């Protein structure tokens, strides 16, 4: 590879004067290429709208509502969610910095620490979890369509013959919802941005309608706020609080890794950071308040905590009200699913085979895996949803986040060789494309985080009651923190034991085997 000039702009953002020398690399394609500075145009509002679109969706609502179903009162649930969002915002902003500075997506960023090939491990871990989330969001969106059409057409739709334990009309709704999302993602990243911008102001409408109806029927806030906490503030609450807090963090731990997929388009560090600070805590707190009050009100009205908003809307007596609410919920779910669960794995799968998988094909792969993973099972019970699904994967991704934060901010001091991220045999090739230090750190952090995974007595779940590794059982309640801290410390220790030269910020030279003949093997 010929030397490639790396230019640092006055605002700190880095660009390549010419990408031609790296275009022959088999680790390069147009979707993974660094975004030129002149095309990094996203504003504060774009990021605020992105978060509004991602946060205001049915699973976000269900996450907050499920805390009520688990026995918390409104104040306990709100404290848990707000604290979780503030905590996860920290690694999210730290990893976002690289996207804006270098114009690179998450899987390319990970190459600096896992190796050009090893980054596929981190990327695919993130991608397969996103596939699960895509499936969950698509299932609940399809359920909303199923209920909506049922309100308009009558009992024949709702009482259709069953297939696989569900009415065939529900499967049809699920399929239609899936196809609509695939059509949008097939048009590319710019189509996603436009969709987020125009839906963001609308997605709150459905949730506000639900809340207003419940408040009116329940007689105002008084009966809701006076509901006693089933758990109290003693040992019963604290036993639920820790794993619930980890679940709140895990809900956005995926984005704490792959926000560079979006911040690579940022007009400045200030714009992306301000948009996220204004966006994530405020929008998630808003949806949490709406979900908590609505679910608590439903508990007063119907005698049970209905944590699925589509099912709650189905109880309303006014068909017109149900239709308006569900249309807004469907738009909200499409908006969130595209941004949070399709963009990232599209890049991640493309990173695995850059010359064969485009952004659109990666999105299609995400959609297929999202169905195969059977999301209706993951979403069927709040215990499985929070403690098994969110708690487990959150711990694993916490370990990846620990490696990235330690590597970028402490070891590399935010200095990367941009062209080297695409080079075979270059600075980030390590040994055969893999950095064993990152692998060891991720493994240690992952075992600390989820080695003690257990199923609580009286709950459903795939883990043994005493934990997979019994002596680590107490640590599982703090899975994300354990994973991040463990991987952070181990990666620093291994990296400092074998110091590497500081990154160059001008011309890169040195051995490389990139050429126009290099293609996917």
TrEMBL record:
Mode of membrane association: Multi-pass membrane protein
Keyword DNA damage assigned: no
Residue ranges crossing the lipid bilayer per the database entry: 48-68, 74-94, 127-148, 168-186, 198-216, 236-257, 277-296, 316-336, 357-378, 384-411, 436-456, 476-497
Region of interest: Disordered: 502-521
Highest taxon listed in the record's lineage: Bacteria
Keywords: Membrane, Transmembrane, Transmembrane helix
Stated family: Belongs to the purine-cytosine permease (2.A.39) family.
Protein name: NCS1 nucleoside transporter family
Species in which this protein is naturally found: Amycolatopsis methanolica 239
Lineage: Bacteria, Bacillati, Actinomycetota, Actinomycetes, Pseudonocardiales
């Amino acid at each position: 590879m010929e030397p490639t000039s790396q230019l640092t702009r006055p605002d700190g953002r880095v660009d390549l004067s010419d990408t031609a020398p790296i275009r022959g690399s088999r680790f390069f394609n147009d979707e993974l290429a660094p975004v030129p500075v002149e095309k990094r145009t996203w504003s504060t509002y774009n990021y605020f709208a992105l978060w509004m679109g991602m946060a205001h969706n049915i699973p976000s609502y269900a996450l907050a509502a499920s805390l009520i179903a688990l026995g918390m009162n409104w104040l306990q649930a709100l404290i848990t969610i707000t604290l979780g969002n503030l905590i996860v915002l920290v690694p999210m902003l730290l990893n976002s910095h690289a996207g804006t500075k270098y114009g690179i997506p998450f899987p390319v960023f990970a190459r600096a620490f896992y190796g050009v090939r090893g980054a596929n491990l981190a990327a695919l871990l993130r991608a397969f979890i996103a596939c699960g989330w895509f499936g969950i969001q698509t299932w609940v969106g399809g359920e909303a369509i199923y209920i909506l059409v049922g309100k308009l057409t009558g009992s024949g739709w709702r009482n259709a013959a069953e297939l696989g334990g569900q009415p065939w009309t529900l499967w049809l709704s699920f399929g239609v919802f899936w196809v609509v999302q695939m059509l949008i993602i097939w048009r590319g990243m710019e189509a996603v941005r436009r969709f987020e911008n125009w839906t963001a102001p609308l997605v709150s409408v459905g949730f506000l309608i639900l809340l207003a109806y419940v408040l009116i029927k329940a007689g105002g806030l008084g009966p809701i706020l006076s509901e006693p906490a089933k758990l109290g503030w003693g040992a019963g609450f604290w036993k639920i609080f820790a794993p619930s807090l980890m679940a709140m963090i895990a809900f956005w731990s995926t984005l704490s890794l792959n926000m560079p997929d979006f911040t690579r388009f940022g007009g400045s560090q200030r714009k992306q950071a301000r948009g996220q600070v204004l966006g994530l805590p405020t929008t998630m707190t808003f949806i949490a308040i709406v979900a908590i009050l609505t679910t608590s009100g439903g508990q007063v009205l119907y005698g049970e905590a209905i944590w699925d908003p589509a099912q709650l809307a189905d109880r309303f007596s006014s068909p017109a009200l149900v239709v308006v609410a569900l249309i807004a919920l469907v738009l909200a779910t499409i908006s969130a699913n595209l941004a949070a669960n399709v963009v990232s794995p599209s890049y991640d799968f493309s990173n695995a085979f850059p010359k064969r998988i485009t952004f659109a094909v990666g999105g299609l792969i995400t959609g297929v895996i999202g169905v195969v993973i059977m999301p209706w099972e993951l979403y069927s019970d709040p215990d499985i949803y929070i403690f098994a699904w969110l708690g487990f994967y959150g711990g694993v991704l916490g370990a990846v986040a620990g490696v990235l934060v330690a590597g970028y901010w402490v070891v590399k001091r935010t200095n990367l060789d941009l062209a080297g991220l695409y080079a075979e045999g270059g600075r980030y090739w390590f040994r055969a494309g893999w950095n064993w230090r990152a692998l060891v750190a991720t493994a240690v952090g992952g075992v600390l985080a989820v080695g003690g995974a257990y199923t609580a007595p009286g709950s459903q779940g795939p883990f043994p009651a005493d934990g997979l590794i019994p002596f680590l059982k107490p640590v599982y309640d703090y899975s994300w923190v354990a994973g991040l801290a463990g991987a952070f410390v181990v990666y620093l220790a291994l990296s400092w034991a074998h110091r590497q030269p500081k990154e160059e910020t001008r011309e890169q030279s040195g051995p490389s085997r990139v050429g126009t003949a290099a293609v996917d093997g």
